[in-house]
Amino acid sequence: MKHTRETIIKLIKECRATKTPIDLSGQDLYGLDLQGIDLRGSNLQYTNLRWANLQRVNLQRADLQKADLRGAYLQEANLEEADLQWVNLRRANLQYVNLRYADLQRANLKDADLRGADLDYAGYELSCETIGIKADERLVSQLLYHLCRMDVQDCPEWDELRNDERVIALANQSHVIDVYGLPEIEPLNTQEEK
Predict the structure, then answer these.
(1) What CATH number labels 1-135?
(2) How far does CA 31 lie from the centroid of its chain?
(3) CA 41 → CA 15, 19, 25, 48, distances in Å?
(4) I want to staple 41 with a disulfide (CB 3.0 to 4.6 A). Which of 21, 59, 69, 154 is the partner?
C-alpha cells in the first residue's frame, strides 16, 4: 500500500514514539529529512531514499534490500547487522557509519564516502560496484593488515611489497591489532625460504 508523504511522516513519528519496527517497503521517501529517527528492525526493501537525510538514524537490523540510497546522507547512522544486499549507495555519505556485521553483498558503493566507517565483520565485497569509494587511513590500514596476513603463493612482486617497511608500518596502524588482540605484521624472512 502506497502512503502519502504526510502519512509516512506520521507513521515514522508513531514508530519513534512506540519504538516498534515499521514497514515502509516500496515507499517514496526521496529527500525526506529523517535525521535521528529510530527505524531499527524496519522493512525498507525497495524504498526510495535518494538524497534523504538519514544522519544518526538507527537502522540496526533493518532490511534495506534493493533500496535506493543514492546520494543519501547517512553520517553517523547505525547500520549494524543491516541487510544491505543489492542496495544502491552510490555517492552516499557513510562517514562514521556503524556497518558492523552488515551484509553489503552486491551493494553499489561507487563514489560512496566511507571515511571513519566501521566495517568490522561486514560482508564487504571486492567487485566493480565497490571501486572508487572514499576511504581513510583506518580502512586502508585494516585492508593492508588483511593482505599482509594472507599466505600468498607464486607472487614475488607481493613478497617484495609485503616486506616494504612502509607497508608494514601502515598495516600495523590497524585498529584490529589492539581491538582483537592480533599480532603485528613482521617482515617475512625470505632468506630462510631460499
Answers:
(1) 2.160.20.80
(2) 21
(3) 11, 10, 12, 17
(4) 21
Q: Quick one: which of 50, 99, 45 has its CA closest to 71?
A: 50
User: What's the CA dihedral at 186, 187, 193, 194 to 10 degrees?
Assistant: -170
Cα 180 to the chain's mean position, in Å?
19
Give the integer Cα–Cα distance in Å for 169 and 11.
Answer: 51
pLDDT digits (tens, 9 = 90+) for 105-164: 999 999 999 999 999 999 988 899 999 999 999 999 999 999 999 999 999 999 999 999
| Greatest C-alpha distance within the chain | 72
Residues 75-109: tens digit of each pLDDT = 999 999 999 999 999 999 999 999 999 999 999 99
What are the boundaries of each domain within the chain? 1-135, 138-193
Distances in Å between the Cα of 165 and the Cα atoms of 44, 185, 187 are 46, 10, 8
Flag whether the pTM goes above 0.85.
Answer: yes
Report how far residue 134's alpha carbon sits from residue 100's, in angstroms, rounded to the nearest whole number.
18
* 19-59 residue pLDDT tens: 778 899 999 999 998 999 889 999 999 999 999 999 999 99
Cα distance between residue 103 and residue 66, in whole Å: 12
